[in-house]
Design a protein that fits this description.
heterodimer; A: 236 residues; B: mainly beta; 3-stranded antiparallel sheet
Chain lengths: 236, 92
């Protein structure tokens, strides 16, 4: 590294670098419309919007009873739309879970300085990569799942944990009846345990009465996964 | 504090302290459907992680991103997938 700044913590881990971004807290996303209830064939969800011209990193506040995940987020102009599943364990007749309002904290890459007190970090090309005038995204823990297993533990003290990232995995279950098949598609959601994050499956889609040849074979693909826990305490 | 950097806000609240911060910085946010390779010789000896970020709800493939340090620094290989998927690349 011929140019720039790198700072490590006492464990030698990188905590600040001019070759990376130093995400800052931008605010909470706003529910768009109402929480969407599940149908007889699709899982429910809620959409949140946030206005920002740069790249955002949404973080879902974890809950000990409700299970949630950010499914996707996309940008149109300066408006970001974030799709979330945040549910409990009650279901409708088709097995889809009841959805609830979630809290989505939005961090992002800096595009301009937010204040005059603090500092700024620029990369070798002169791009702003760190804005120390605003509250930073504080990494509280890095949690990992092996290929199988529902629980990832952590030892750090975290007051209000949120999760950065989502799982890219799904499970298909099939239920034959007569000569037909019902296929259930599920994805991972997350909840807070005691010093742990637990992932559970969330039914997202149901295809009923398929011919056996049209149904996807039952699949369970819990992949190895790394996510970060972010401290949300004090952020409003 | 022997070495490090502390940042206070204008009200005097400590908001960042490199002596207590958990390791982890964000290299970038990427979206790909076709394969590519990303090399980071500036992070030789460090651990890089892929945090899946956004994508379709039912992707029949895994995220298809692997990290090798065989070259002495992180090399990220992104495989071609049917659906675009987004991920955060992080290092500590």
């Amino acid at each position: 590294m011929a140019y720039g700044l790198q700072i490590v913590n006492p464990s030698g881990e990188l905590v600040l670098s001019s070759e990376t971004y130093f995400p800052v807290y931008l605010g909470k996303a706003t529910l768009s419309g109402s929480v969407v209830a599940p149908t007889t064939t699709l899982g429910g969800y809620s959409l949140y919007t946030f206005t920002y011209s740069g790249q955002i990193l949404p973080v879902l506040k974890l809950d000990s009873t409700k299970r949630g995940t950010i499914i996707s987020y996309s940008q149109a102009g300066s408006t970001w739309t974030i799709k979330v599943s945040f549910r409990d364990t009650s279901t409708n007749a088709q097995g889809f879970f009841t959805q609830y309002l979630a809290e989505v904290f939005v961090f992002g890459f800096p595009t301009s300085l937010g204040g005059t007190w603090g500092g700024a970090i620029y990369d070798a090309s002169g791009n702003l990569v760190g804005d120390l005038t605003r509250a930073p995204m504080l990494v509280a823990s890095r949690v990992s799942w092996a290929t199988s297993g529902a629980t990832a533990t952590y030892s750090e003290s975290i007051t209000v944990p949120g999760v950065l990232g989502r799982a890219v995995d799904y499970r298909v279950r099939s239920f034959p009846h007569a000569s037909l098949v019902d296929s259930l598609y599920e994805m991972s959601t997350f909840r807070l345990g005691t010093g742990s994050v637990i992932r559970d499956y969330d039914l997202r889609r149901r295809i009923n009465n398929q011919a056996a040849g049209d149904a996807e074979s039952p699949t369970e693909r819990l992949g190895a996964l790394d996510l970060w826990l972010i401290e949300l305490n004090g952020l409003t | 504090m022997a070495h490090g950097l502390r940042v206070w806000d204008a009200s005097g609240n400590l908001v960042f302290d490199t002596t207590t911060a958990k390791g982890g910085v964000v290299v970038g946010y990427f979206t790909y459907s076709t394969g590519t390779t990303l090399s980071y010789p500036g992070f030789a000896g460090r651990t890089m992680q892929v945090l899946p970020a956004s994508g379709v709800e039912f992707d029949s493939n895994d995220i298809g991103v692997t990290i090798s340090t065989a070259s002495g620094y992180p090399v990220v290989t992104v495989a071609t997938r049917t659906n675009a998927r987004s991920f955060i690349l992080a290092v500590f």
